Amino acid sequence: MNPHRRPDPVTAIAEADATSRTAEIFADIRDVMQIPLITSIWRTLDAVEGGLDAVWTATRPLYLSGWPDALLQTMEAEIAFPRPARLTRRQSRDAGLTAGDRDGILAVCDAYNRSNGLNLIALTALVRRPEGAAVNSVGRPTLDWPELAPLPRPDQIAEAEWALLRRAAQIGLAQPGDDIPTLWRHLLRWPAVVNLIVEHFAPLDSDGVLARTVSAVEDFAEANAVVVSGFADRSVVIPAEAMRMVEAYVGRPPSVARMAAVGRCAATWLAASDWGEK
Description:
Radius of gyration: 18 Å
Number of domains: 1
Distance between the termini: 49 Å
Oligomer: single chain
Strand content: under 5%
């Protein structure tokens, strides 16, 4: 495996296909992280023998410490996440979107943004050694999630939709890449949303605004993760291939920081837009 490239999230095991120990770990991840779905890093780690179990066992105490949650809130408050001019009611209507679509779309965005943000902080902490004085655990939230629209399987996606996903996949990348972030695939339940994101975020991308935001997110994770790195269980032996996958996932470029940034930008833009009346 190329250590600088993450496995393709499109071909990772589907959450619904998990059985036995994998299914148990996925359920525990959902519970501990307070998320309604399992994002790609955990699903791709399942392809490495012992990888999923080892990485989750090592990082579970990090998530339970409450610090990834606390730092994610701080990051979202401190970093200015840019967004285009909000959609007008007419633009939403012309795209075929209604106010009834809003909650489902934002729930999907929020789920991925929470998961990507927590994973960025916790898994960066895993691959970095502790620095500074030890810190105590802090409180964690208990969240209720609505039922999300299902993630389209690859065989349910038409070629024209793949072309749209490949365009969306370039948002926020310094150089062209092949990986298709799962958030965009999940939002394909509403193709108009993905198309609008591609269209309206293009100027921010070409001007370097998104790249600077991604760098700010990366810098925040690097600066703060080492403070809570001591919560990781260092007694766990993680397979070398699994550790390379984690290092690539939080490394530069492209890393999960890209989607932690771009996903947050898209969510704040969509939330501020005019969807009309329900």
